[in-house]
Amino acid sequence: DVKVFKGTASRVGGLDFAELQKETASLVKDSAYGGLDADDVKVFKLSNYGFINALQKGRGGEEHANSPRVAKLLHASVREDDPVERKNKYNDFVKELTETAPFGLRDLLQFKYADTPSDADISLREITERFVTGGMSLGALSRETHESLAMAMNRLGAASNSGEGGEDKVRNDHVGENRDTTWKHLRGKSIVAGDIAQSQIRQVASGRFGVTAPYLAAAAQIEIKVAQGAKPGEGGQLPGQKVDSYIASVRAATEGVTLISPPPHHDIYSIEDLAQLIFDLKAINPKARISVKLVSIIGIGTVACGVAKAGADVIQISGHDGGSGAAAISSIKHAGAPVELGLAESHTTLVENGLRGLVTVRADGGVRTGADVVKLALLGAEEFGFGTVAMVAAGCVMARVCHTNNCPVGVATQKEKLRARVRGEPEDVTRYFESVAEETADILKKLGLKSLREAVGRIDLLELVDDMNLSKTTRFDVATTVLKPIEKGLFTQDFVAPAEPAPSRALLCPAGIHFDDQYVGEGKAISKEPYYLVNTDRAVGTRLAGDIARRQRAEGKIQPVELKYTGAAGQSFMAFAVSEMKVSLEGDANDYVCKGLSGAHVSIFPPREAEANGVFEAKNSVIIGNTCLYGATSGKFFAAGQSGDRFGVRNSGVQAVIEGAGDHCCEYMTNGVVLVLGPTGINVGSGMTGGVAYLYDPSVNDDMIAGRLKLTNVKPRRVQNGSPAADTIKRLLREHHEATASKHAKHLLENFDASHFCQVVPPSEEDKPHHAVVADSVEEMAVSR
Length: 785
Known about the structure:
This protein is 26% helix and 16% strand. By secondary structure, it is α/β, with parallel strands linked by helices. Helix 8 packs parallel to helix 17.
């Protein structure tokens, strides 16, 4: 009995060596002679089994649940006006999937129907309200498709997901207004009274594209994407050809430049960091439910318990299916695990630890039919995510060219000529989900149940299919893991799904009171005297920012406010602070300062008396922690001192000055300006695609500067006096000195020499005149390595 991949867990068994040898032999047998190579050795070409693209019916190969054939059947159903005929065509769609199954673990499970079916009148609305679409971003999808999905889900009482590309603020208004201007691209769409194209779920991913205070303040639910089922551990990517002027404006990016999201660990290193982000989002939008998207992997139950304790309202378990438009082939085919494994484990672990009642559990991963919905409910899910199939209902034909910007039906492209071909109407999407709800209700009645909520966690109503005959292996075990009964333990409680989702949980702080509550609310005023902070005061300014964003939407222009603080601020000081806020802190601050800054002017400096003794020098001291300005979109920031690691990661518009930084400064930056008046660590500019940075280097040591940079992403250029770049540096130095009274900035201004600064520039910014490093022409600094 030979052991391989020692230590790797397989909860469902798998192929043995005899079965592997049999499969390999069949591949060789079916291969075709391809001639001789350069050394006269015979070459054989393996047959195309449709591993990537589905083969036409009758040609054999691997079956695909998302195939052009399945798409055509679904289109025939949703475009049928006669209700009876539409149901028949939907049944044809379901039959095609059933006959070609199994595609996943749930296809190996069947229902235990009741002897006496239920005669309950099950509300379809109560079912559709538990449906959500996947996080498909504006940019990955066309405006027409993205907005049609949102309108359809809003009609159903369900929720669409914005994805990680932000959302145009005009979508907060009713679609029927200004139809000839704002909504002219929807000219061919059928609009009903009250239609709104707002995504009820606003996503916060590692890229933070378009994540601003107004974006968050308008959300009904905010989703933190820790991982995506189709590509766990990877960030998103939008090819440059899909970043047109409109997409760039929504994402605060540069037109034509590829946008890359960092892997999720860039701002969430631990469960404590996740808890802080949940805290920040509840601070800016107290009414929004906060969901956390996790990937289905072995051990996810333990993580789910941590997420529940961290204050989340919804835990979403994502299976490995999907991601066809935004993930590499290697990820789609070889990463992640089936949703059934992660869902069963998460639900069971939460129940056994007495935490299941705190959260709603949502599942997604190849959900297409009512049978899929009911099976996932029986395994523990209360809400259900639909990704690719929702896109198909909206018109996708599964051409699998999403990444090329050449979608033939306009669903996943930004080209106007192709977008004009979009056939999908909001009605198409609502008809699909209503058909799924009808099928769901029929199955629930056969199970003897009166509602979908009664099905949650009832694994006793599932069993293995009678004739499980798999072509590859007999060593397959679904029951042990997926149908594992809940063990009665010390914390175990009987779980009954609530009739309605619980409201957003309170902030995890003493008595649920936030620091900003003292000046946010009717009749409360901001003191002219400084507020004193201690490092347990977290996300100070964030609740005020959310309040201003909501009032601005309702009332229009809001009067600016000025706030002064002293002491040591806790994590996320001024996260998402808005342009109506001018803030100063005399003291220091922890991690995540100005995370998601949305227009505010923020300055931080040491106590005025600190440098009076002539020993302490602010420029040599750390004044703010790690991961500051992460995902900031606009505003100005000045700190008279050094920052920790990862300063300015994903900065997309802020102008900032600091006096030293740790490793990974300006990673994945897409816009804005960062001026560093002191030493930096390594890996500066990694993944940077826009904006510029300036590093202070009085030694004029080009090799030393080059050693700090990620030269595959950025180039260093020495600045010369009289250049536009030199003017930018002097302006920022003056503003920095005015905001912080920095002695270092004053010294540099009085002894200004532009050659002491090196510009760090990505290719997209090299030829822009306002970044020129010499007065007459742009000359790149020669770097010898």
